[in-house]
Design a protein that fits this description.
There is one protein chain. This protein is of the alpha/beta class and 267 residues long. It has six helices and 14 strands. The chain has one domain: Metallo-dependent phosphatases (Purple Acid Phosphatase, chain A, domain 2, 4-Layer Sandwich), CATH 3.60.21.10. Strands 1, 2, 3, 4, 5, 12, 13 and 14 form an eight-stranded mixed sheet that branches. Helix 5 links the parallel strand 8 and strand 9. It is globular. The relative contact order is 0.18.
Length: 267
């Protein structure tokens, strides 16, 4: 039996949520997708963090599990949702006092179990525990039934994402990078059977600079003066990767980049 899951790159603001709500149901039908993981740490109205309503909207659109990152605490009302740990995970290498869980397991209709692990990078990022050690702890804690294991490494440095993937090759089904909002063209199945892509890209407005309106970002970089980085609105796209896994073993069969554009791309 083949298991097919879709991983979506960072969902940015209301435009990103609109892209998910419109494009995801169609994609799930067309590609016969069994499960969807999406990084939602920029899904809030202002592109910083995720609120309870934003998480609910993504889940209702068909996202089975939401992963987060360095903006996890930007919206206060997400804390109770993280405590419930229903379909949303925060980075596993945060302090032990942090609310929420760094990994979750999902029982699938096929009888298989899927685990989702969320990690935060250390290079050029805010302080966090070692993601390598956190990954070891997460894998040790998972049920033996969890044959399908997918890992979101939310990190800035491509070298760190590559290193995590190589470290976990053969131990998990897939490792995908998020955070940089630029889809990479290096998708492949590693020698040990783990699918990998350095960055899934961005689900949201692509007539932008990483999802933000162009002019304020250029002004800030050119003048060093403060500018409000508002979420952009045009050229809405859904980006990610579609991975096929072998039932029973959880080894990756294939990985393919995905990009879908919303025809009416102004919010």
């Amino acid at each position: 039996m083949e298991f097919r899951f879709l991983a979506l790159g960072d969902v940015v603001g209301k435009p990103g949520r609109r892209a998910v709500g419109t494009l995801l149901p169609v994609l799930v039908r067309e590609e016969r997708i069994d499960f969807v993981v999406a990084n939602g740490e920029n899904a809030a109205w202002n592109g910083n963090g995720i609120g309870a309503g934003d998480a609910r909207e993504l889940r209702e659109a068909g996202v089975g599990c939401i992963t987060l990152g360095d903006h996890v605490w930007r919206q206060a009302d997400i804390v109770p949702v993280l405590e419930e740990a229903r379909g949303i995970v925060r980075p596993a290498n945060l302090p032990p006092e942090a609310k929420g869980k760094g990994w979750l397991e999902f029982d699938l209709p096929s009888g298989e179990t899927l685990a989702v692990v969320n990690l935060l990078g250390q290079v050029f990022m805010d302080p966090a525990d070692c993601p390598f050690h956190a990954a070891d702890r997460a894998l040790a804690a998972l049920s033996p039934r969890a044959r399908f294991i997918v890992v979101d490494i939310h990190a800035e440095a491509t070298s760190e994402k590559n290193a995590i993937a190589r470290y976990l090759d053969g131990r998990v089904s897939a490792v995908f990078g998020t955070h940089t909002h630029v889809q990479t063209a290096d998708e492949r199945v590693l020698p040990g059977g783990t699918a990998y892509i350095t960055d899934l890209g961005m689900t949201g407005p692509h007539d932008s600079i990483l999802g933000r309106k162009v002019e304020p970002v250029v002004k800030k970089m050119r003048t060093s003066m403060h500018a409000r980085f508002e979420v952009a609105e045009r050229d809405l796209r859904l980006q990610g990767a579609l991975v096929a896994l072998e039932g029973g073993t959880g080894r990756a069969i294939s990985i393919r980049r995905v990009e879908k554009r919303l025809e009416s791309s102004h919010i």
